[in-house]
Amino acid sequence: MSVFARAREDLRAARIHDPAARSNLEVALTYSGVHAVWWYRLSHRLWQRRAFLLARVVSQLARWATGVEIHPGAVIGRRFFIDHGMGVVIGATAEIGDDVMFYHGVTLGGRSMRDVKRHPTLGDGVVVGAGATILGPITVGSRSVVGAGAVVVRDAPADSTLTGVPARAVPRAGADAAPDGFFVDPAIYI
């Protein structure tokens, strides 16, 4: 997929997830979460080419410009959207599936100083509320919803709602349906 096709897909994802978005131009010019994802893609490409220092410099410039810190070693799927951007931190070994949405202040952090997988893995269609913290090499299953302010330190199955400190996972009511309208069928992007 070309850079421009991927950018168009990001703009469409933002417009689907944010009813306040009025046009692709508005999103492209003013949405710091979208800008952070675009900067991340550049830094991640550099990271994959083993230009580690340059990748880190690009990611730090993005942090300064957007208020979002995404380590270039993280792996992020398609149509990732960060609404309101500020304060998001995504660690080096984090993995994020397709069609994931974050609100401001989300942290995907580690709990180890060793050079191992130490950050969370999020499945497809996960929604993470404002100020939520997900720590350690855990997995949050697809289509799960993490409530605002939750602190997740244990694995959660698909189609869960996670709330509290520490967060407790409960099955979502009507999990067969789209979770609160956030999980979007990728076919609409074609």
Task: Please provide a written account of the structure.
- The chain has 190 residues and is α/β, with parallel strands linked by helices.
- The chain has one domain: UDP N-Acetylglucosamine Acyltransferase, domain 1 (3 Solenoid), CATH 2.160.10.10.
- The chain has four helices and 15 strands.
- The protein has helices at 3-17, 24-30, 32-48, 52-66, and strands at 69-70, 75-76, 81-82, 89-90, 95-96, 101-102, 107-109, 121-122, 127-128, 133-135, 139-140, 145-146, 151-152, 160-164, 167-171.
- It has a six-stranded mixed β-sheet with strand order 3-6-9-12-14-15.
- Strand 14 and strand 15 form a beta hairpin.
- Helix 3 packs antiparallel against helix 4.
- The chain is globular.
- Residues 186-190 have low confidence and may be disordered.
What strand order characterises the main sheet?
Answer: 3-6-9-12-14-15
CATH superfamily: Hexapeptide repeat proteins
Low-confidence stretches: 186-190
List the secondary-structure elements in sequence, H or E: HHHHEEEEEEEEEEEEEEE
For the report, how would you describe the main beta sheet? 6 strands, mixed
Shape: globular
Q: Mind telling me which CATH architecture this is?
A: 3 Solenoid
- Helix tally equals 4
Instruction: Give the radius of gyration.
Output: 16 Å
Give the N-terminus to C-terminus distance in angstroms: 12 Å
CATH topology: UDP N-Acetylglucosamine Acyltransferase, domain 1
The level-1 CATH class:
Mainly Beta
Structural class: alpha/beta
Mean pLDDT: 91
Helix content: 25-40%
> How many separate domains make up the residues?
1
β-strand percent reads 15-25%
Q: How many E-type strands?
A: 15
